[in-house]
Write a structure and sequence with these properties.
Length: 470
């Protein structure tokens, strides 16, 4: 698992509304096009995304980040990467798949960690009674486990008929033979009070095509009396990783294994050039009208645990189970979540170029062209933008990096001739686009944004600019 501290580009740039033009050459600057869609990578690096839209109108988000838990907060689902952040130490190693839940007036983070030995992975929980989980104090509530105290990861909470249940992925014994989904009753948000009960184990061909066998990442969706547990199966390190579905009723005895039914086929799997979709979470559009799945995928075919985060809308079947369809084509923009602001889209090929930077044609590029070969210190592309209000904006850029060696690259991003900041671009191969973001403060009027040579090599296809917050 790779991550990059600060890759969000959360440094706010205070701009003065003065345009500084470069002396480069290029085509005449074209006007932006206002769009109600976006290119579907919301985080260019990361795994195990968990996103929730709270009653305060903010999206709260977390993912696997190493040895800590990091929280993000944003009014925009697609702009979450540029949101404000908080890093919370855990005192452990290999911290996996944290989740943030609001239960009975307090915030809880559930996460797995070990001491450096995977066999010692267990679930833990911490509590924060602040209204904003990025403020206040996080209190360690310790390990959350049943009486067996076996290996456990990916814990989540289900509330049915006023009762809390904990659902997680664990080992049956002390050895890593297969991962099974268990449920147990909770007496409070940090305590399991009943024996664990198995509700699913790998059994179908698509769940047992890699060893060890895996059922993991359970996530809850409810609709009326119907419960859907969406889980991940097959090897998370392979392109076969996919989503399966368990169902039950809130009115059933949820500690009775016979109350649970498993769908025989996957409900979400590789397609349209997107590989290994899994470990999903679910949220609402800003206006509450749409349901969205947030999930990780491999960055490219065969990239294993080198992953990125995507989102798309889903609907419901007549039996009240979710219908996720297939992963959408990454090179066709999809409609924004309902209630998100439209954004101005700028094509890099319409900017002013200097040095070795040049325009290249490619069918997978926005507008059919991109800017690359930003290869020397004097090389850059710069684009004029106009904003109609003072405020905080997110720059949401479609970027590419195929630098030999597989490392991160940067472009030097500057505004109106100001000091440049690092604009991080993950390595996933040329013409396999990711999304780099930067939050910035802009005054009403015209500004010039420049992308110059940084570390390694990177290309830019274009970028969206949209206002967030007040």
């Amino acid at each position: 698992m790779k991550w990059k501290t600060g890759m969000k580009g959360s440094l706010a740039l205070l701009l003065l509304g003065v345009t500084v033009s470069g002396g480069g050459w290029g085509t005449a600057q074209a006007a932006s096009t206002q769009k109600n869609d976006f290119y579907n990578v919301i985080m260019q690096d990361g795994a195990d995304p968990y996103m929730v839209r709270h009653a305060d109108g903010y999206y709260y988000y977390t993912k696997t980040t190493g040895n800590n838990v990091t929280l993000w907060r944003s009014k925009s689902m697609t702009g979450i990467d540029a949101g404000e952040t908080l890093e919370i130490p855990t005192g452990g190693q290999n911290v996996w798949a944290p989740e943030l839940h609001h239960i009975k007036g307090a915030w809880y983070i559930y996460y797995a960690k070990d001491d450096g030995d995977n066999a010692n992975h267990r679930m833990y929980v911490m509590e924060n009674k602040s209204l904003n989980p990025l403020k206040g104090t996080w209190t360690d509530k310790g390990m959350i486990t049943d009486s067996t105290n076996r290996w456990a990861i990916d814990g989540t909470v289900l509330e049915a008929r006023g009762q809390l249940y904990f659902i997680w992925s664990g080992w049956e014994g002390a050895d890593n033979v297969q991962q099974i989904l268990y449920i147990a009753k909770m007496s409070n948000p940090w305590t399991i009070e009943s024996p664990r009960v198995e509700i699913a184990r790998p059994e179908h061909t698509w769940e047992t095509n890699h060893t060890p066998y895996v059922n993991e990442g359970p996530q809850i969706l409810t609709k009326g009396n119907d419960i859907s547990v969406v889980y991940s199966a097959s090897g998370s390190w392979t392109d076969d990783y996919s989503l399966g579905l368990l169902t039950s009723k809130k009115s059933a005895d949820l500690l009775d294994p016979s109350s649970w039914s498993k769908k025989p086929d996957q409900v979400f799997k590789s397609g349209n050039g997107v590989y290994g979709p899994g470990h999903a979470s679910f949220t609402k559009s800003p206006d509450g009208r749409e349901d969205w799945i947030v999930y990780h995928t491999a960055k490219r075919q065969g990239s294993g645990w080198d992953r990125e985060v995507r989102a798309q809308r889903f609907t419901w079947n007549s039996d009240k189970t979710p219908n996720f369809g297939v992963p959408l084509d990454p090179n066709i923009p999809i409609e924004l979540p309902s209630g998100e602001p439209k954004r101005d889209r700028y094509e890099a090929e319409d900017g002013r170029l200097a040095g070795t930077a040049k325009v290249s044609q490619h069918p997978d590029s926005s507008g059919g062209a991109k800017v690359g070969y930003i290869d020397t210190p004097e090389s850059y592309v710069e684009v004029d933008v106009n904003v109609d209000k003072n405020g905080t904006y997110v720059l949401y850029a479609r970027t590419g990096n195929g630098t030999a060696g597989g490392g991160w690259s940067t472009l030097k991003l500057s505004v109106d001739g100001g000091a440049p900041s690092d604009f991080f671009v993950t390595n996933q191969g040329w013409d396999n686009w990711g999304t780099s973001t930067q939050k910035m403060s802009l005054t009403k009027g015209k500004h010039t944004i420049r992308f110059a040579k940084g570390e390694g090599y990177a290309e830019i296809d274009g970028f969206d600019l949209f206002r967030v917050g007040k």
